[in-house]
Amino acid sequence: MNLLLKSSLYTLSLTALIFTTSCTKTASDKTLKFGVKKSETLIVNLQTEPPSLDWNKSTDTTSSEVQGNIMEGLAQFDLADPELKALPALATKWESDKAVQKWTFELRTDVKWTDGVEFDAQQVVDGWERLLNPKTAAEYSYFLYNVKNAKAYNEGKIKDFSQVGIKTVGKHKLEVQLESPMSFFPSLLVHHSTYPVRKDLIEKHGDKWTEAGNMVTLGAYKLMKWEHDEAILLERNDAYFGEKAKTKYVLGRMITEQSSAINAFDAGEIDVIPELPSNDVSILKQRPEYQKQNGLIVYYYGFNTKQKPFDNLDFRKAVAMAIDKKEITKVLGQDDVTATSWVPKGMMGHEEEMGIKFDPAKAKEHMAKAGYADATKVPKITITFNTNENHKKVAENVQAQLKRNLGINIEILNEEWKVYLSKLKSKKGYSIFRMGWVADYPDPDNFLNLLTSTSANNHTGWKSEKYDSLIAKGVSELNSDKRKEYYKEAQKLVLEEDVAAVPLYYSIRQYLINSRVSGFKLNPLDEKDYKSVMVK
Amino acid sequence: MGTRIEIKAQTMITSVPNATTAVSPRHNSLWDESYKRLKKNKAAVISAYFILFVIGVAMFAQFLAPYSFDTQNVERILLSPNAQNWLGTDSLGRDIFSRLIFGSRISIAVGIFTAVVSLLMGTVYGAFSGWFGGKIDSLMMRLVDILYSIPALVLLVLAKVTIESLETFKDPELRALFSIFGALSIYGWMGMARIVRGQVLQAKQMQYIEAARSLGISSPSIVMRHILPNILGPIIVTLTFQIPANVMFESFLSFIGLGLQPPYSSWGVLANEGWRSLRTFPHLIISPGIAIFLTMLAFNLFGDGLRDAFDPKTK
Amino acid sequence: MGDKFSAFSKNHILDIYKIVMGILLATGFVVSVIGVDGMLTTILWSTIGALLFAGMIFLVIKQHLLPYLIKRFMEAGVTLLVIVTLVFLLLRLMPGGPFDSERALPAEVMANIAAKYKLDAPLLEQYTHYLGNLLKGDLGESYKYLGRPVSSIISDTFPVSLQLGVYALILSYLIGIPLGVIAASKHNTWVDTGSMFLAMGGVTLPSFLVASLFILIFSFQFQILPPALWEGPLYYILPVVTLGIRPAAIIARLTRSSVLDVIRSDFVRTARAKGLAERVVLFKHVLRNSLIPVLTYSGPLIADIISGAFIIEIIFAVPGMGRHLILSVTNRDYPLVLGVALLFSVLLVVSNLLVDIFYAIVDPRIKLAA
């Protein structure tokens, strides 16, 4: 037996030895993955594998973060401008005719793709054709529906793309014909779905055209390596037409779990964390690496106006008046901004004096007016939200507030994300729902269009012809003062008069940024622009 | 193929004893002796008391907890343990001590209820399969094999999401709980079925069963009155091991965001809310961690004790 | 035990084969931990693969296993077909489709997407279409990672999971078996109680707690190990140890009780009485026989490691398949769910088959009959 015991002990200690020796190997090695030097590399956390770098097809923020740094659109947003107007990028200038229905774009003549091919107007047309082609099945194809015949082409009713209202005039000029007037059309061209494409390369490589080695772009960085689900490496594009990037490499890691990302941050494995776990914010806030920025995001509660008791206007008013938004932001503890208008702070159309004020006394009056003087007579109310820590906190708080201020009992019901979405689609089984909207482009139309009667995102069941016409007027108006008036009226209608929804707060974006990083400019659109970033 | 599966199922719970080999039917001496042996095992006895204690806490949670599990206090967020909140408060200002006590209710309920459901399903299925043998047996076991080859996690996730999306209960808590029960039972009964079937197969060979058969006693009656009592030992042992496994699975479901949702509290929920904050607010995780640890330990030690007690071979 | 086995041992080719395989596997293990790339590794692993294959063929012929194998493979085929059907149906039962998102899409766009992915076809047609492609070895394209075939997602991430799993498996044997033997040989002493208590500890905490505890201690208290990522031996340690603890504990307990059983058995007494050298008795008789239940447990063990790995992968940001297992379901990425489920099932079925075959090698009493 002793022999067996001895050999067992040997095996155990040998195993322990192997582990301890590998432990003692020092981690001071400054060479990172892909063999790049840390002193030349900005390390960011992309959080997930970019679902697709194909800019016609992708719909998520991770992909667009990478795309935005390796590509350029015809326009870009002026992040210094309070209204975030569109500035020239690949286009040098644009103008529209009087009716705001025909736009012409002059394009840069000095741009080369990373394989040396010259950029021209045809590549923009190719990109739009691909976006609208039904075979691509791009989710963002509706972005260009206002281009003449674009919708018909996307539906397959027109097979000939030359009938669609975009054409080249010479090598570096574009002419776009719209279905109806649209004042902010250039803003759409900032979006990745409208970037130019290299049709030749897509035909050559098929779906693999976005792989490292195949991918050809024209932005400040180029895609060097892409190890799926693990890391992505961008390298400075020395042939970039604008100001060259200051840091040679950007290494994007894909750490999904937030607490793991913070661990990695503290171990020096990543420099920038774009999202913080809500529980720990109160502690992380005190760190010198903490930075925050208002985002163009509205978080709202919508009422299902098709169901009792929310079919009653007075009841909706009562509920809206009984919610103290300040308490919600306090519970969240993230310094989010309490919401007033539908359009968030930091862009055109935002109103500081808008929406229903917290007033529990008046709320009770409205309750009585609605016929529910006795709170126990109120039909069952459910707040639904998709399973998530913050949504849960908000729902629980609103539940407590309505109990306190109106005496009504409310059920809260969380659903798994996709179940939740299909429930919203069916418009059944909920009385209050939560949703958020993040700006696709910083124009009030992007936010307010959501509540029109034709919008698929309008889950309230509320419809108003007046509202629809105000929004339509706003789209075609060039004068921004007049636009603001339309949008103010529209928001008053939906938020104060009809109370179809209550914007609760505008989300804040929170970062941890390592002190060796400088020049990382936060902005309301959350565009992560690496080219001005420097590392030590 | 059949025999090996059975061995596998047995070894999974560290060689379940063959109670059948040593026992004659309707004899109390086995139980008496087992009980005596169990009483001598100090660790098992202490564990048993601890388990009873936890069950007691779970049953009388309303009376024991100083606060409700969902009372929020915005002014008292994320406090460390103090005089008012013995174990501190969470991010909504809820008392962790109370949540832990209420949490024991759901965790223990999930553990026991699911184990019992799997036990019933598994025993009926396994006994049926084992007793009839032959074609029926191989067909039924084939089905178990197939289900067993679906990775546990895939099966759990699919079953959980599907069951929860069926509108089984109006109350969201019940619906979530039911889906957890359902998903875990769907997974749990298979192991039980294999073990029971193996035991029945063995018991069938026994002489007294042959005797009972030749006396013309009906099959259900033989199974119920002669076979089941004799294989009760291994079944109970399996049950004791399945309870902690279920509690653990519940916490895994919470981890992947498919568990019970707060404001309701279970140990899995608490552990999941807490582990991310180990570096910032360790009090969030320490108490549920210790509760899970001790309870798991107790169930395992008790299970070991039971197994040794039923199996005269081990000393 | 016997005759057949001594007959085997006389066969020098087999002995040489065993030794060569042992050396090669050990080298392969070391090389893969250190992370040497290039020709050497390729040659090494292909040699191992070829030898293993040759060994299997030899075994199949020698033991007349061919009919048995054919039967098992056919059974496996049926199993997989049932699994695919079940998962396929379960997925369609779930509410919510793959392309529902925060931004509800206009009906025209949805129609294009449905047409592209054939989601507008009748269910039966979708099913037969999927099966048809599956037979051709095509697992389809992910709905989430647009344009990326499921097979490439698997081939990108699975090797990492496999690496993690195999290391954890090896570790759990390396710790579990000796611990169990020690406990058994010091039966009823404090060593026994202590090691069994240690083993008990390994199964009593959810792995995400163990993981975060380890990170706290080794990454931040002592700062010797990185808390996340998968970029070299140093990074492997925490995830592998965390994943290996549970199976190690189970193996230790199994080994202990099994060694105790064997030591008391008649044939060991006989072997000793025959005057065989203690070394031979212990290693050839006691250890070999007591490892049989441990070996049979490997099937469930591998399953355990597979389903345990995803938590470890998420916490330590290991770029394995784990996250796809969960995310694909929540995304309703049908082809990916099916692909992942299928892969894991194949893995389970194959590992069970291998365990059964190995079982027959160690214990010649077992006949693998068709």
Kindly state the number of beta strands of chain C: 0
Query: What fraction of residues of chain B sit in β-strands?
Result: under 5%
The helicity of chain B comes to over 70%
Count of helices of chain B?
Answer: 13
Low-confidence stretches of chain B: 1-26
Unreliable stretches of chain C (pLDDT < 50, length at least 5) are 1-9
Q: Estimate the global geometry of chain B from the Cα principal axes.
A: globular
Structural class of chain B: mainly alpha
Quick one: overall form of chain C?
globular
Task: Give Rg of chain B in angstroms.
Answer: 22 Å
The total beta strand count of chain B reads 0
Class derived from helix and strand content of chain C: mainly alpha
> Quick check: average pLDDT of chain B?
80
- How far apart lie the N and C ends of chain C? 23 Å
Oligomeric status: heterotrimer
Report on the biggest sheet of chain C: none
Give the integer mean of the pLDDT values of chain C: 84
Main pleated-sheet profile of chain B: none
**How far apart, in Å, are the first and last alpha carbons of chain B?**
32 Å
User: What are the secondary-structure elements of chain B, in order, as H or E?
Assistant: HHHHHHHHHHHHH
Could you explain how this protein is built, in words?
The complex is a heterotrimer of chains A (536), B (315) and C (370). Chain A is α+β, with helices and mostly antiparallel strands and 536 residues long. In chain A, 31% of the residues lie in helices and 19% in strands. Chain A is built from 16 helices and 19 strands. In chain A, the strands form five sheets. In chain A, strands 11, 12, 13, 14, 15, 16 and 17 form a seven-stranded mixed sheet that branches. Chain A has a four-stranded mixed sheet with strand order 1-10-9-8, with no helix packed on it. A four-stranded antiparallel sheet of chain A has the order 4-5-7-6, with helices on one face. In chain A, helix 10 packs antiparallel against helix 12 (389-406) and helix 15 (465-476) packs antiparallel against helix 16 (480-497). The mean pLDDT of chain A is 91. With 315 residues, chain B is mainly α. Chain B has helices at 2-12, 19-22, 29-40, 42-59, 61-64, 96-132, 134-149, 152-165, 172-204, 207-214, 219-255, 267-275, 283-310. Chain C has 370 residues and is mostly helical. Chain C is globular, with a radius of gyration of 24 Å. Chains A and C meet through helix 1, helix 4, helix 7 and helix 13 of A and helix 5, helix 7, helix 9, helix 10 and helix 12 of C.
